[in-house]
Amino acid sequence: MRENKTKIFIIINLLAIILVMSGCSTIKNASSESTTKTNNTIKGTGDLFLNAQNLVQLKMMSNGTDCQTENDYSNIVDSTLGQYSICYYNIIALNDTQVTIEFNKFANLEELNGSYQYSSLHLYSIQGLISENDYGDQSRFRINNVNDYMGQLNNPNVTYYHLWICKDTYLIHITSSGSKDAKEYIEKIGRQILLKFG
């Protein structure tokens, strides 16, 4: 009788251990699947576009033109085939301010870095720099300045903000044209796009 109780006790303990181990295995597998999904969420530039909910939160609207994507886009800097998309918006509270967002996907980080350095430094003076690396290791935020290349020809009543963000193999360039009050909007757009990477 006592032997039977001992055998039953051992069997129950073994079953409990097996159940716990299989449960841990399931949790581990679910966790690794979740990580894989997060890393593979962004498959192309289209996954980074602002959706209707984003536009409401940002107090923006489309200018009536759909985002355009070119899959075989040849970058002028490195001639690498990649993916390029461009979207146009208006800031509702700032009637005269337009926002353009360019999304570039590169084949590798070296090509991304070369394009980022060229496009964010090539025509701009240091005087207009607002911040660096506030949106990841490679980001630049700036306002137009008279010392930029051809800057003296800009309309003094029009302010241009530029925010470049690098993430994975993507280069995002957000530009506003219009009100000086657009600074906060550009910052929020940048953060909203970064959230899409998970």
**Which secondary-structure class do the elements indicate?**
alpha+beta
- Main sheet? 8 strands, antiparallel
Order of helices and strands: HHEEEEHEEEEH
Mass-distribution shape: globular
Proportion of residues in β-strands: 25-35%
Number of helices: 4
CATH fold assignment of the largest domain: Protein Transport Mog1p, Chain A
The level of helicity is 25-40%
**What is the level 1 CATH name of the largest domain?**
Alpha Beta
Ordered list of secondary-structure elements with their pairings:
Layout: H1 2-39, H2 52-58, E1 60-62, E2 68-74, E3 81-91, E4 98-105, H3 109-121, E5 129-132, E6 139-143, E7 159-167, E8 170-178, H4 183-195
Antiparallel strand pairs: 1-3, 2-3, 3-4, 4-8, 5-6, 6-7, 7-8
